[in-house]
Amino acid sequence: MHASEILWTVVIGFVLVGSVGFFLSIYNSLIEMKNNIGRSWANIDVLLKQRHDELPKLVSVCEAYMQHERAVFDKLSEARAALAKAAGVAQRSDAENQITRAIGQFFAVAESYPELKANQSFAALQARISELENAIADRREFYNDTVTLFNTRLEQIPDSWIADGMNLQAAELFKIDESDRKDVAISFKMSA
């Protein structure tokens, strides 16, 4: 073999190894991102389960005080039932939005019961659920960031070529309900 043949063989070998390495790194990073989406959704699920477990405790503490507020309890129960039936990100997102609205209405009604607000169990549960709501919002943001990054990679070249070969599909964002974007009407009743 001549020196030029050896040089070309080495160059072609480096190009082939480099190309395979490049495509393997894209493949592995897409797999990692896909798994991160699953992990971030599982992190949301952990918090949702904790919130789901806390809600019956809150309802039981409040039922004695709020006997004539049955509609609030019913909305909360319906929202929890919708969550149990939900499958997929879109349905779970809708069910979670229903629970968030029901909790908001629940706490708004509870404001008109001073003896309930003074109850230590209620205060502790309200603080715990508020803490969970904040953590859920943080995890939803992380989930959506991960999904957006993944979906962007699926549209970029050469990642899109490899993603097509892997049959990867764009992931769904965790969206809020359109009614949650509206301004909240606040009215103060003046007593004479």
Automatic annotation (TrEMBL):
Main localization (coarse): membrane
**According to Swiss-Prot or TrEMBL, what is its membrane topology?**
Single-pass membrane protein
What is the superkingdom listed in this entry's lineage? Answer: Bacteria
Q: Which InterPro entries match?
A: LemA-like_dom_sf (IPR023353), MamQ_LemA (IPR007156)
Location of this chain's protein in the cell: Membrane
Q: So which residues are the signal peptide here?
A: none
**Pfam family membership, one:** LemA
Keywords of the record: Membrane, Transmembrane, Transmembrane helix
Give TM regions. Answer: 6-27
Alphabetical GO CC annotations of the entry are: membrane
The UniProt similarity line reads: Belongs to the LemA family.
Q: Quote the protein name from its UniProt record.
A: LemA family protein
What species was this sequence derived from?
A: Eiseniibacteriota bacterium
